[in-house]
Design a protein that fits this description.
The chain is mainly α. It contains eight helices and no strands. It is 79% helix and 0% strand.
Length: 171
């Protein structure tokens, strides 16, 4: 199966939903104060949360990629949500271009692995075959590290956080 629902994924989904709920509560007053209250904000946040939940249940590399894109594309739009501000638009464009470049690395890494493998089967292939280890390390890990904001392109990530809304950064 491509989706696996177990206790661990349910726990992660509960954390994601709690975080999204807290972020919506933070957003209500903030968006009103800065005159950005539009309905699209909550729909985009909902799509991003659905991508997070799908990633928590994913059991296949292709589904991880689709969930990651479902998570990131609404965040690209949300980072440029403060439309009159030029720095917000610049932040969205930089975030989109760097995310598209990192997505290419991820797709290439998945293509190098070549076979549909489950998460459990993937780790046995990594330990037994050097080709899988190299392709995953150099092509899969940078995308995941970029999305989790770990030391990849630090200056661009700092600009993204500086130029976007406070409530979105909290999310």
């Amino acid at each position: 199966p491509m989706v696996m629902v177990d206790n661990y994924s349910l726990f992660i989904i509960a954390i994601i939903l709690l975080t999204a709920f807290m972020s919506v509560l933070l957003s209500l007053d903030y968006l009103r104060k800065v005159d950005l209250e539009r309905g699209e904000y909550y729909y985009l946040m909902l799509f991003s949360v659905s991508g997070m939940m799908l990633m928590a249940m994913a059991n296949d590399l292709i589904l991880i990629f689709l969930a990651l894109e479902l998570l990131s594309i609404p965040l690209y739009v949300l980072s440029g949500f403060a439309l009159p501000r030029v720095d917000s638009e610049e932040s969205a464009l930089k975030y989109f271009l760097l995310g598209a470049f990192a997505s290419g690395f991820l797709v290439f890494g998945i293509a190098m692995v070549k076979e549909p493998v489950t998460a459990k089967g993937l780790f046995s292939k990594i330990t037994s075959n050097t080709r899988y280890t190299i392709s995953l390390y150099y092509l899969f890990v940078p995308r995941v590290r970029y999305k989790s904001r770990q030391r990849v392109l630090q200056s661009q990530i700092a600009l993204r956080y500086k130029d976007t809304n406070t409530d979105l950064n909290a999310f």
